Structure formats: C-alpha cells, structure tokens
Amino acid sequence: MTDRYTAEERFEVDGANAARAFMKERGISTQQTQVVWDAIALHTTRSIALHKEPEVAMTHSGIAVDAIGVGLDRIPPDKQRAILAEFPRLALKKQFKSSLCNIVRRKPATSFDNILRDFGTRYRRGFAPPNFADVVANAPFSE
Description:
There is one protein chain. The chain is an all-alpha fold. It has helices spanning 11-25, 30-41, 46-49, 54-68, 77-86, 92-106, 116-123, 132-137. It has eight helices and no strands. It is globular.
C-alpha cells in the first residue's frame, strides 16, 4: 500500500508482485514464491484463501486478527498484552483507513471487487464503483 510498490493492479496484487520480485532476486524456488504470492494476493479474500495451502490460510487469518480482530478471542488476554507491548497498534485503524481511501482515490478502477469498495463508498465523496448486476444487465447480448 506504499507508493514504492504501487503499480496498476489492485493493492493485493501489487504487493504480491513486489514479494515475487524480492524472492526471485534471492533465488527462492518457484513453488515457494507462488505460495507467498498467493498468500499476499488472497489475504483479503477469505472465501478463497482458506481453501489454499496452510501458509495462505494462516496469512489471511493472521491479518484478519490484526486488522479486524477475527479470532482475537482465541488468544489469551496475557498473550494479547504481550503482543501489543512488543508491537503497538500505532493508530492502525486511522492509518489503515487513510491508506485504503488513498488507494481508492488514486486507483478507483481497482476498488470495486475487494475491500476497497466499502471504504470508497463510505469515505470518498462521489465514489461510484461498478455494480456487477449492472455489468451483466448491460452486456452486449440480447438474452
């Protein structure tokens, strides 16, 4: 989600592509690189990530607990405190919202089929993402 790694794709794919380049430069195997690519590209797509390799499912689950608290109740309170002492949240909600809204502003075409749609709809005046029902209705077929 940083300027350095922002390209033309949706932010998950931009990040996955950056990770792929990083791993390729270091001679990491194609198979390992693909698992990392999938983990990053699919981390916001629960309905797919949980059906992939364990590393992909765990990446999604770890990010979900960190970003929105899904599964937080499975971490004992003393361990939560220790984790937060070592890794403070540093206004994560505010920064996360700001970053996502910035992507919606800069690359609106990448924000209709992922979590960005919700941030654009709620926080970006004038944001009008495509609606898939409209896409189907306007398809160039008579039937």
